[in-house]
């Protein structure tokens, strides 16, 4: 059973971990020498996971930012040759954003930087601890409880039925696949 104090401590630990992850990923991103900011890297990953080149408004919605922020990010990626604006073939008023070959190459390098950052972060954990952490993170990301958590057992008892199994999110690198 958790108490308000233990929940507060857990929340603080999660925030500290999040800040550490961001710092380490930023350092590995800088070491990659691509000159891409973390926000630009996220936009590149999002573009790679879209079924078709998205509109700026689609990207803003997907990234949960204002459209002006996407414009600035795309400007930077376009200046670096990693993305380009392209007219929509069916509606000349619509501009779509697509990856360039340089952008696809940058994504490969960015994946390497993310993997090395993850290795650094997870280094203190054993294989079993990593598996447990993975299950817990899946539960937190999906907003569901894991099997061994008392809260889930109470909910299942109250409902009188077992909960269905969960499916993993499509895609990789923390970005869901699909249309933008």
Short description:
The chain has helices at residues 4-31, 38-48, 56-63, 67-79, 101-122, 127-142, 150-159; strands spanning 83-87, 95-99.
Q: Which class of secondary structure composition applies to the elements? A: mainly alpha
Strand order of the largest sheet: 1-2
Shape: globular
Profile the largest sheet.
2 strands, antiparallel
**Share of helix, binned:** 55-70%
Portion of residues in beta strands equals 5-15%
Distance between the termini: 41 Å
Are there runs of 5+ residues with pLDDT below 50, and where? Answer: 148-173
Mean pLDDT: 82
Order of helices and strands: HHHHEEHHH
By DSSP, the count of extended strands is: 2
Radius of gyration: 20 Å
Number of helices: 7
What report would you give on this structure?
It is built from seven helices and two strands, in the order H-H-H-H-E-E-H-H-H. A two-stranded antiparallel ribbon has the order 1-2. The longest helix is centred in the first third of the chain and has 28 residues, at 4-31. It is mainly alpha-helical. Helix 3 (56-63) crosses helix 4. The protein has helices at residues 4-31, 38-48, 56-63, 67-79, 101-122, 127-142, 150-159; strands at 83-87, 95-99. A hairpin with a 7-residue loop joins strand 1 (83-87) and strand 2 (95-99).
